Amino acid sequence: MKKYTYPSVLSIAGFDGSGGAGIHADIKTISALGCYATTVLTALPVQNTQGVRNIYPIPLEAVEDQIEAVMEDIMPAAIKIGMVHTPELVESITSTLKKYDAVPIVLDPVMVATSGHRLIEEDSINALIEQLIPIATVITPNMDEAAILANMNVKTLEEMRIAGKQIKELGCNSILMKGGHQETTNITSLFFDPNNRCHSFETKKIRTNNTHGSGCTLSSAIASLLAQGKTLFESVDVAQSYVYNAIYSGKNVQTGKGNGPLNHFFNPQKMIKNEMD
């Protein structure tokens, strides 16, 4: 009798009790794209659609134990890393992952929430740059996060290009710099590939407050598509289309009193079954 496996994606990220961001957005995205979601909780933010109220830490040993439990049982085909807000957590995740065979890693350098709330400690930035960024297949900063990484203002498309080149010099394999904060009719995201080529992706800007968790959704979508065996460029391309449609499909729905979530299940895919050798 033939046996099958699901393409598995591991999300290493923070919590969101309101269901729009963090591991909640990741689980929804991974599932909607036909993959199997596993998770490791890195922090317990207390938040809703209106903002972050507090962040409670998860013990480092607990994070390490979670990673080992998943990796030793359900080896992922791709990993998405989100909220890692302390240098000790960066070190813990990096050293634990190095025990296992290399898997494509999508790093969303979560530093600033949609509400504008700063989510990362200052000394964590250097830890990200020195340890996690070099092992990531692709990082997905928004313009505010790119400004922090490049240590410059990032308000225009030209500044995005300059920042991308500077971040690439940090030892980054590839970057998808999101342009969602642009106040123009069309928004442009830039993908700096492993060969230092810059690709532009342009979409119409959707006028809605329902973008809570869009960054989490994009990074986990890229990871899901990589897990399916798609190329990095195709994964980046298709993931952006998925996020655009998820925002568009949920733009007129009110969930909460602040920035609402995306509609992750606007066109859910059946679980993918890969035949085992």
UniProtKB/TrEMBL annotation:
Pathway: Cofactor biosynthesis; thiamine diphosphate biosynthesis. One of its GO terms (biological process) is thiamine biosynthetic process. Keywords: ATP-binding, Kinase, Nucleotide-binding, Transferase. Gene3D superfamilies: 3.40.1190.20. GO terms for cellular component: cytosol. GO terms for molecular function: ATP binding; hydroxymethylpyrimidine kinase activity; phosphomethylpyrimidine kinase activity. It holds the Pfam family Phos_pyr_kin. Residues 16-263 form the Pyridoxamine kinase/Phosphomethylpyrimidine kinase domain. Its EC number is 2.7.1.49. This is hydroxymethylpyrimidine kinase. It comes from Flagellimonas chongwuensis.
